[in-house]
Amino acid sequence: MIPIYEQGSGNGIGHSLQSFLACFEKICAEHLAAGRAGAFAFIFYDCTDQALRKILKNQGVFSKT
Description:
This protein is mainly alpha-helical. It has one domain. 38% of the residues lie in helices and 9% in strands. It has a two-stranded antiparallel sheet with strand order 1-2.
């Protein structure tokens, strides 16, 4: 099994499948309740890929104005 990590401040947070699903559902519910999003996605990637990590660290990549 490939580990699932959530990006956090400092080190990533490791998840089992159950904890990942629970966390993802909670985040989706919070965003829906706040009117922030109507669609959701997540990205699985190889964290050793330095070029992709640099792109993903740029929060503007996910922002649309």
